């Protein structure tokens, strides 16, 4: 992958990037308090970019806000992620089969461009967001359905787990990028069942990595 890291454009982006790296690496463990004044002092910024950064991390599922206890690092748990992936493994094949005949050539071109962008980034949050979008490209013909919305919500819930599991794992990122190229090839070849099989293997490989990471953090 390209080793170039995009420089943060704003103070809030800088703070979010620093905190995100600490959360994903485990330096800031689940339940750790994130006090705005301490963070502002450490990074030499005002409270405004800190609040913006914490809102961004909360939207990513990495931080939770409690009216009484303030901002804390969210706990990423094995039972939660197992539920997410059990549902994805059950529902995504249905969505793939229903939407497969309606995937247009321009969607395949968009997916190919997304693969190139994913291979070029070293930012795990950006990669996770692009990963989510890559898979959704094939299903957009069904975006008004309840099934799409359910799968979309599961993908959103999985994003912090994916980013956490791949943090510092260039080998697994490359494996995932290879999986994406194979999935795209199955769509180009018009082989629906192969696309279903590849997507299943892709999800199974991802949950295996996440499980290993979470079990390792508990030992």
Give an account of the 3D structure.
- The relative contact order is 0.13.
- The protein has 2 domains: about 60 residues, Arc Repressor Mutant, subunit A; about 140 residues, GntR ligand-binding domain-like (Four Helix Bundle (Hemerythrin (Met), subunit A), Up-down Bundle), CATH 1.20.120.530.
- Strand 1 and strand 2 form a beta hairpin.
- About 70% of the residues lie in helices and about 5% in strands.
- It has a two-stranded antiparallel ribbon with strand order 1-2.
- The chain has about 220 residues and is mostly helical.
Tally of distinct domains: 2
CATH class of the largest domain: Mainly Alpha
Query: What shape does the CA trace take?
Result: elongated
Series of secondary-structure elements, N-terminal to C-terminal: HHHEEHHHHHH
Distance between the termini: 31 Å
Number of strands: 2
Rg estimate, integer Å? 18 Å
According to CATH, what is the topology of the largest domain?
Four Helix Bundle (Hemerythrin (Met), subunit A)
Low-confidence stretches: 1-6
User: By CATH's scheme, which homologous superfamily of the largest domain applies?
Assistant: GntR ligand-binding domain-like
| Largest sheet descriptor | 2 strands, antiparallel
Summarize model confidence as the mean pLDDT.
88
Q: Helix amount, in percent?
A: over 70%
CATH architecture group name of the largest domain: Up-down Bundle
Please indicate the percent range of residues in DSSP E strands (runs of 2 or more). under 5%
């Amino acid at each position: 992958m390209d080793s170039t890291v995009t420089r943060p454009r704003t103070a809030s982006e800088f703070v979010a990037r620093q905190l995100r790296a600490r959360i994903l690496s485990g330096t800031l463990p689940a339940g750790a308090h994130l006090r705005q004044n301490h963070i502002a002092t450490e990074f030499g910024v005002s409270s405004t970019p800190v609040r913006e950064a914490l809102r961004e991390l909360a939207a990513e599922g990495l931080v939770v806000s409690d009216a009484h206890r303030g901002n804390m690092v969210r706990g990423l748990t094995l039972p939660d992620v197992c539920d997410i992936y059990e549902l994805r493994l059950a529902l995504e094949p249905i969505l793939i089969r229903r939407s497969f005949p309606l995937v247009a050539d321009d969607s395949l071109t968009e997916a190919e461009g997304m693969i190139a962008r994913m291979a070029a980034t070293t930012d795990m949050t950006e990669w996770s967001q692009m990963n989510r979008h890559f898979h959704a490209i094939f299903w957009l013909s069904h975006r008004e359905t309840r099934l799409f919305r359910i799968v979309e919500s599961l993908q959103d819930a999985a994003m912090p787990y994916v980013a956490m599991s791949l943090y510092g794992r260039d080998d697994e990122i490359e494996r995932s990028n290879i999986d994406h190229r194979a999935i795209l090839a199955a769509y180009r070849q018009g082989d629906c069942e192969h696309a279903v099989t590849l997507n299943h293997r892709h999800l199974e490989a991802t949950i295996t990595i996440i499980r290993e990471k979470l079990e390792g953090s508990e030992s």
